Each structure stands twice: as structure tokens, then as C-alpha cells.
Amino acid sequence: MTAASSTPRALSFDAVAAQYAANRPSYPAALFEAIEDMAGRPLTGARVADVGAGTGIGTALLHARGARVVAVEPGDGMAEQFRRDLPDVPIVRGDGNHLPLATASLDLLTYAQSWHWTDPDRSIPEALRVLRPAGALALWWNSGALDVPWIDAQVERIERHFGLDRVVGGNGDGTHDALAACDGRLDFRSRRLRWSRRVPVDTHLANISSHSLFLVHGEESTAAFVEAERRHLLAVFPDGVVEETYEVGLLLATRP
Length: 256
Fold this sequence. Notes:
Elements: H1 3-11, H2 17-23, H3 29-39, E1 47-51, H4 57-64, E2 68-73, H5 76-85, E3 91-93, E4 106-112, H6 120-130, E5 131-144, H7 149-162, H8 175-182, E6 189-200, H9 201-208, H10 212-215, H11 219-236, E7 241-254
Parallel strand pairs: 1-2, 1-4, 2-3, 4-5
Antiparallel strand pairs: 5-7, 6-7
Helix pairs in contact: 2-9, 7-11
């Protein structure tokens, strides 16, 4: 998918910004510990830009660890929700292909669930431009743990409903795509971190239906899937509480 063709999907989140903020999973503390370890410096005091920040799920955690973070977000609805949730964190409008940031100004540039919306032919040079020497570019994704039977079964149902090939974690994000896009230009190291959360069935359904795959197929298609999926989930989780298990794929490269 090119950056141009992905734009409608990327901006589809604007219409469901509040749903996204309320129901999407966060990230484990171990992720940020891994970033510090791989980057060779603490987040406290680091100058950081979080690109494709959305409603600020990742940005808030970077800020809480003491980073001097600014968010970069192209979507009107997402930026509005961000300002409501994080009024003390600066946000600028832009995207990874055209970063509105000064040259050699950052210790860390992060993309939480958002690198795949960029054109690497433009976003990689932009990353190299805004990072200081020895600064780091960090990309990460939450993906559903497909070795968990109910998650694998759900992904198969999503594929059938939308007529798709295998989707990673149910939303099409994947670390392998990012590795391929960066091949030969940045030397990435990677880690995988497993974590889980327990949420009501309704929260889980609101989470998955906030993915762009559902949003671009319209309310009727999404509603049909959600109604059927609720029955599947309650058969597995009769108490109405779903245990979502994730693997966070982290890629980090240090600027020469």
C-alpha cells in the first residue's frame, strides 16, 4: 500500500477518535525499558517526537517517563481528542513524510502503530534529518498473539468477513513490512514483548472495530461483524471479560 492510497484509511480514524482513545490497548512498561536499553539513554529529559500520535496513547507514556515530547499528527479529529486528553503536551500538525521539526533537534523519533502510513522513501530521510547524531528511530506495533486459539480464530473470522488474506493481529500492521521498507538504509535491531489486558467484551469489540479495516467498510458491515462476534466471544468468555494477549514488535535504529 502506497502512502497516497493509504491516506483515506489513515484519516478514517478522525471520525472515531473518542472510541479509539477509550478502547485501544496501551503499551507495557517493558517496552519503554527496552527502548532505553537499546537506545543507550534514559527517556527522562530526552527530546522526543511521537509521529502519527493519534489520541496520544504512546505520547502520554513517553511524557510520563520524563521525555520532553512533542506529538505530530495529521488528522483533525485525532488532534482534537489529543488536546482534550493531554492539554499540557504540545502537538503540531504534520506527518512522517514532511516532519514540521528542526534539523538535528531530536534524541528519539517514535512511531507507535503508525510507520506503515508513511512512504519510507520520504520518511527515512526525514527521520535522519531531524535526529541528532546517535539519536534513535523507534517503531512499534501491538499485534494479537496468534498462538492464542481464540485470537487466531477471530482473525480467521475477520478474513472471511472482509474477504482478506491473513491479517496480522487483526489490523494489517506488521513489523516485517517496516523491516523490508527500511532495508539497506537503516540498521534495525528488534525485540518482541508479550503482554495482556483483561477488558469487557464491549471494550474489546469497540477496540477492533476502531481499526481502519472496519472504518472504511462502513457501519453496516462493521455492525454485522460485531453482532456475530459478540456471540463467539461470550461462548469463550461467559463472564463477559476478554483476556487480550499481545506481542509488541519493537524496531530501533540509531542514527550514524
